[in-house]
Amino acid sequence: MEGYTASLLLYTFLVLTEEFQITVGYLVDPESNIQCLKNYFYKDFRPIYMNMTTKSEILICQTWKEQEYFITRYSTQYKIPIYSAYRIDSLKKKYSNYGKWRNESSVGLQNPIKQAEHLDYTYSGFQRGHLNPRYHNQNGADNIRATYTLTNAVPKTMETNIEWFLVAEQPLFKEMRKRCFYPNAKRYIIVGVVLGKFSMKSGRVNIPSYIWSAAYCDTSQINHTDRAHISDWSIGYLMKTDDKSYANGSIQDLQYNLQKLTDSKVQLFNNNVHSHQQISGLKLVQRTKSRKRSRPNSLSCETQKKSLNTEIQNEQIPDENEY
Ligand SMILES: *[C@@H]1O[C@H](CO)[C@@H](O)[C@H](O)[C@H]1NC(C)=O
Ligand SMILES: *[C@@H]1O[C@H](CO)[C@@H](O)[C@H](O)[C@H]1NC(C)=O
Ligand SMILES: *[C@@H]1O[C@H](CO)[C@@H](O)[C@H](O)[C@H]1NC(C)=O
User: 156-165 pLDDT, tens per residue?
Assistant: First the structure.
């Protein structure tokens, strides 16, 4: 009996310790000077995007096993992230691990009045859609796991989740490989939402009407002698969630659309991420479905489709896949 009690105590201790070690984020004062802000916001600039109402919004430095991975502005009123900001540090596609979705008990959000819980998504018809996606976190399995927090998830239908992967997450990663493949480049990304009119579970969890992302390739750390043919690069993506129309373009064009959609000033990166292009806004269109290839290509096309499907599945059904 005593042995039993002892092992029960030990078990409890281990579980608690484990839980403690895996604690998942801490609150950040947006006015502070803390390293987490500097790591994930380019030049330490806090995006200007929908007025942050201090009462119902918080900044979370997202950690996993005591390491910091990204930062999230979370709305306790709408119970979704407004955006997550992160960096792509590895452009090698090595990891296809999953995570297990968890809630954020460590940042004073234990109360389901303040955050979405698993039950909100169960049988809702919506998936937990990553803002900072699995696909962009290739620094290791823990890097991927760090993204599996409900504070980094918004309700997306399966179709929207797949489409966003196809028109934004994957092309952005590939484009980064083409245009920002320098050892000392820093790749800053912000992925955010425009709040929608509808919500899951009678008003609890907002269903975004748009998803957007903005990416900047900062090459200023690159040795000057190597800089001759290198210039900074940026891109913005926007997708309407109900009809899945989308567009990509300059950050300025994205900001123009977001300003109209949110009826407030928008500036996602600091001033030197500005091109001199004419701002015309993004024109959203639906993706044209690729036509069937002719015979000779069909095999490779089929293979491609298969690997894409696997990729999408990995992206889509993380809940069933525990680490
Ligand atoms: C945001 O805040 C600014 C200044 O505090 C104010 O002028 C503006 O009207 C606010 N916008 C919204 C949409 O609340
Ligand atoms: C968070 O997760 C823990 C463990 O899975 C659970 O006990 C708790 O009720 C959850 N809280 C919320 C708000 O979902
Ligand atoms: C931008 O969108 C166009 C279609 O409008 C697409 O052909 C192109 O591949 C996209 N570029 C990137 C980098 O996502």
Answer: 999 999 999 9
CA dist 39 and 86 (Å) reads 8
Per-residue confidence band for 276, with pLDDT thresholds at 50, 70 and 90: low
**pTM, entire model:** 0.83
pLDDT at 246 over 70: yes
DSSP 125: S
- Nearest ligand to the C-alpha of residue 261? 1
276 phi and psi, to 5 degrees? -105, 15
Q: Is the CB of 248 under 6 A from ligand 3?
A: yes
Please state, as a whole number, how many other Cβ atoms lie within 10 Å of the Cβ of residue 144: 24
Q: Find how far residue 56's CA is from the centre of its chain.
A: 21
Tens of pLDDT, residue by residue over 182-210, are: 888 999 999 999 999 999 977 899 999 99
| Lookup result for tokens 């000057």 | 224
- Beta-bridge partner residues of 86: 189
Distance CA 224, CA 183 (A): 13
In angstroms, the CA 82 to CA 211 distance is 10
Distance CA 81, CA 25 (A): 14
pLDDT of amino acid 295: 44
At 250, which helix (H) or strand (E)?
A: none
Give, for ligand 1, the residue of 52, 264, 265, 267 to mutate: max count of ligand atoms closer than 8 Å to Cβ: 264
Q: Which ligand is nearest to the CA of 169?
A: 3
